[in-house]
TrEMBL record:
Keywords, in A-Z order: Oxidoreductase
Protein name (Swiss-Prot/TrEMBL): SDR family oxidoreductase
InterPro entries, sorted: KR_dom (IPR057326), NAD(P)-bd_dom_sf (IPR036291), SDR_fam (IPR002347)
Originating species: Micromonospora cathayae
Family statement drawn from the similarity comment of this UniProt entry: Belongs to the short-chain dehydrogenases/reductases (SDR) family.
One Pfam short name: adh_short_C2
């Protein structure tokens, strides 16, 4: 195990949707940088166990909690269980998400409600529960999307709307939590190589035409920025969004 990043040693993080993709990469990076890490998962129980095993392999405590971020009771319970089992909570990473796609006239009320529940209500409730346990140096980091900054093609209006909501919430949180020494930030990933959006998948070459660097991010690229914000490097960064999108929004 490498040396812990300043500010992460001995701290406890909760990463929602941490069983795969960006969430798993963030959870593992935080653990390797010194934090004990809890993750939530919806239906990828075996993958969640694997992430916890890797956290343990990094010499840190890990915890996997089955919780749907769209379920108000479940997401608050996940925060409380993290505090009960790991003893405290210093870092919340709101990562869990869904990806609705399609023309606006085909979006159902059920899809609208589900997306709002996961991306907006669930994030708000998790944050509300988490900050009750945070002291000075606490961090609230929400994973947004490059579509909150630029939408170059149709079909993502619902997704873009809900991810954009995180920016307004984060600005408000900066004012609410600043006097308590807690920061709030958003990280906007661009196209990132995951099982949901593989760099060799259908449409990936078209996606690259919008990216200034011409390549997908790795999940490690996103996790590096999250870890920086979670540590001492993020102590004076709040109320803002940072894009890790390869120039998608340039």
């Amino acid at each position: 195990m490498g040396a812990a990043v300043a500010g992460l040693a001995g701290r406890v993080a909760l990463v929602t949707g941490g069983s795969r993709g960006i969430g798993a990469a963030v959870a593992l990076r935080l653990a390797r940088d010194g934090a004990d890490v809890a993750i939530t998962y919806l239906d990828a129980g075996e993958k969640a166990k694997g992430v916890v095993a890797e956290i343990a392999g990094a010499g840190r405590r890990g915890l996997a909690v089955a919780a749907d971020s769209g379920d108000a009771t479940a997401i608050v319970a996940a925060v409380e269980r993290t505090v009960t089992e790991l003893g405290r909570l210093d870092i919340l990473v709101n990562n869990a998400g869904v990806f609705p796609y399609g023309p606006i006239d085909e979006v159902t009320v059920e899809e609208l409600d589900r997306t709002l529940a996961v991306h907006v209500r669930g994030v708000y409730l998790a944050t509300q529960a988490a900050v009750r346990h945070m002291g000075r140096g606490g961090r609230v980091i929400s994973i947004g999307s490059c579509f909150a900054e630029r939408v170059p093609y149709p079909g993502v209006s619902l997704y873009a709307m809900t991810k954009s909501a995180l920016v307004g919430m984060t600005r408000g949180l900066a004012r609410d939590l600043g006097p308590r020494g807690i920061t709030a930030t958003v990280v906007h990933p661009g196209s990132t190589d995951t099982d949901m959006n593989p760099a060799d998948g259908a449409g990936a070459n078209h996606e690259r035409t919008f990216i200034a660097l011409g390549a997908y991010a790795s999940t490690a690229d996103i996790a590096a920025t999250v870890s920086h914000l979670a540590g001492e490097g993020g102590r004076y960064v709040t109320g803002t969004a940072i894009s890790v999108d390869g120039g998608f929004a340039a």
